[in-house]
Amino acid sequence: MVGLKEELLKSIWHAFTALDLDRSGKVSKSQLKASGVLSHNLCTVLNVPHDPVALEEHFRDDDEGPVSNQGYMPYLNKFILEKVQGNFDKVEFNRMCWTLCAKKNLSKSPLLISDEDAFKVWVIFNFLSEDKYPLIIVPEEIEYLLKKLTEAMGAGWQQEQFDHYKIALNTSREGLSAWELIDLVGSGQFSKGMDRQTVSMAINEVFNELILDVLKQGYMLKKGHKRKNWTERWFVLKPSIISYYVSEDLKDKKGDIILDGNCCVEALPDKDGKKCLFLIKCLDKSFEISASDKKKKQEWIQAIQTTVNLLRAGSPPPHKEARQKRKELRQKLLAEQEELERQMKELQTANENKQKELETVRKQLEAAAARAAEEEKKRLQTQVELQDRFSLELEREKMVRQKMEEQVAQKSSELEQYLQRVRELEEMYKQLQEALEDEKQARQDEETVRKLQARLLEEESAKRAELEKWHLEQQQTIQMTEAEKQELENQRMIKEQALQVAMQQLEQLELERKEALEQYEEVKKKLEMAANNTKSWKDKVAHHEGLIRLIEPGSKNPHLITNWGPAAFTEAELEQREKSWKGKKAASE
């Protein structure tokens, strides 16, 4: 809403300043009514409720009833602009403000553009002008506008001509007012060779782009949703909507295509005799469009896709974003220029201070030179006196120097002895440091050995406790099993006899297993016959507590190795049979 308020203020400023001011800079009593009429018209075009009493209440404290330029703006902000919601016709609003100010300010000299074109240039000025009053358009924005108009007219841009104009403009002022810009465009200075119609069409095209936010427009065919027929429509693309009309005069509107971040556009192959097709997909429906040629098709697809991308990113239209970037660039350059001027002033001040310091030093040097000349005279006078005195002191100094030389020789001898002592102390210090390092390393090794011994003692204590525990358990087990020992011995004898019988059978089975393996390697059929032969043995050994298992081909389980070769049972099967035997024994007891 801040940007909208600034745009409205610019147009209202033109309308308000068109009121005749007296010498005191205030509006007369009779013009208070005119201000009320202006406020009423603003409320009407902006769709804001009008309070006819508010203006008089706002200025009741003024006995004479005038309203100053500063006094009207608070009223405007409080009672009108703060209530604007954006649901108004911007062109109608601008036209109302233009009507109030054009008659007074528009040049009376003949122009190459119509009043309608002048109105559009005035609106474009409000869009491109700086946000400070009185309103002006800077040379950079003038160049941007003239380039847009030249491009719309299909002519070449004359940069050198504008540079000369810019130099002449910068020497006199910062920029142009709205009426000076209209005179510049209407003079034909930058549109030589172009007729009025071409200039008017160019102004209308730039007006549509910058003010009405028209990103693209043109004729295309649209497929109906009910009758499925193709009808030519005039399409107008704006930042969030595509409107289509019967013709380019925009009088008979047939519908809108609402765009948002969920929309997409894609090309379609030619069908039903229609070429250059593309599809606009929205949430509620899709629209099939046929362009006049491939170039137009690609331009529309790219323009719609760019619009959708801007909606997804929440970015403003390209021309508004470009205007903001140009304004930020100007502000940055202005700040840099101000900083440079500040630095130049500081350098100038520093230079002046240096000049003053140099002048002071020069004066000091002159004074010092005068003092030096005076002192030179005194020095020459005292030199003769000093020579006689120095001759006497020279003899005395020779005697003192001899004594000093003897003392220096003695001190040198003492110094040499002192340095020798220092070197010895440094050597002793190095040896002491090495001894300390050795002692530190020995302590670290001793600490490591001590920790290792402690850990070994702990492990030995734990193992000793565990052995004692096992010893007690073993003694308890021996005491408990003495009674069973005899019975176990008898059973062992029986088992040994059975084991001998089983061993004999096992040897016999081992021979047969080897023969079966050899036969398996020769041919698979002999292996099947060997398997049938060994099946009968499996029934026989089942009566001997299942201690023997016939070897079958294809087993991948690990086998135990006995003194007689590979065992007939795996380790897991032996553990299972041992548990079963212990269970039977416990049940019998």
TrEMBL record:
Record's keyword annotation contains ATP-binding: no
Listed SMART domains: PH
The entry's keywords: Cell membrane, Cell projection, Coiled coil, Cytoplasm, DNA-binding, Membrane, Nucleus, Phosphoprotein
Subcellular compartments: Cell membrane; Cell projection, Lamellipodium; Cytoplasm; Nucleus
Top-level taxon of the source organism: Eukaryota
Coiled-coil stretches noted in the UniProt entry, renumbered to this chain: 319-540
UniProt keyword Kinase, yes or no: no
GO cellular component, one term: plasma membrane
Subunit structure: The SWAP complex consists of NPM1, NCL, PARP1 and SWAP70.
Name this polypeptide is given: Switch-associated protein 70
Provenance organism: Steatornis caripensis (Oilbird)
